[in-house]
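Name: Pyridoxal kinase PdxY
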Amino acid sequence: MKRTPHLLAIQSHVVFGHAGNSAAVFPMQRVGVNVWPLNTVQFSNHTQYGQWAGEVLAPQQIPALVEGIAAIGELGNCDAVLSGYLGSAAQGRAILTGVARIKAINPKALYLCDPVMGHAEKGCIVPQEVSDFLLEEAAAMADFLCPNQLELDSFAGRKPQSLFDCLGMARALLARGPKAVLVKHLDYPGKLPDGFEMLLVTADGSWHLRRPLLAFPRQPVGVGDLTSGLFLARVLLGDSLLAAFEFTAAAVHEVLLETQACASYELELVRAQDRIAHPRVRFEATPIGL
Ligand SMILES: Nc1ncnc2c1ncn2[C@@H]1O[C@H](COP(=O)(O)OP(=O)(O)O)[C@@H](O)[C@H]1O
Ligand SMILES: Cc1ncc(COP(=O)(O)O)c(C=O)c1O
Ligand SMILES: [Mg+2]
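Structure predicted for Pyridoxal kinase PdxY:
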């Protein structure tokens, strides 16, 4: 019997609704991965509501919890680490310590870093020290890096002029260490207005994918976290990077279709669970070169 992969997911938790682990854990479980959620914050709700209650986890708790798992002899079963929103650079460094600890026991373990920097227009911006940490320290240790366009711009220090420019910017990130860069959301001059586009860049090739852009009165939150989580889950389940990319696009689109049909602001993950596991839509990524 094939072993079920185990994944340590270090990101935020919201009590109500879906962002961070609250957007990614259930879908990753639903596709067949054992998830170990380590919540960097516990907030009542995501920050786009403009108000929330809750607390940030003390950075020293991250290595302490990882050591707790080591102490019961289970850390070597960890096949991958996913990190998302960071409250501080100290929290980020604590995650890297945990990743190093896991890789020392299981050298095959993978690390996916979602370099969450927020959106100025969404009112969510991370401190400069977190951006610097993501670029200078986390990127070097990550096997997979999943920026959106704003995060890619921040890494490159400029905005792109074309799709090929985005490709070049993502390729430049590969040189910092990751095996693959998944750009979860492209935006560049000349992009068709009715599409939502993503890019996968690996040492073996690069692929571009377009899916329909759906209309929402308020943009749902947690889509990026869902995207990174499903991509890593499918890689752990044995998909090629390209197959995991295409699956992720389809499953996320299914969630958005269900969310739109319900006129819901929060992602309809429970209602969409069968569509996540078995997407009915399929999007084919096309190779793209410089
Ligand atoms: N097919 C789609 N149609 C409309 N909006 C989408 C679609 N896919 C993603 N979005 C929205 O686009 C925005 C950008 O997503 P992205 O940059 O990938 O992640 P993040 O959720 O980290 O902001 C999000 O607000 C998301 O809700
Ligand atoms: C607590 C929390 N975690 C994570 C996120 C990131 O969500 P997204 O995937 O939309 O970037 C947000 C966005 O507001 C948030 O409030
Ligand atoms: Mg995001």
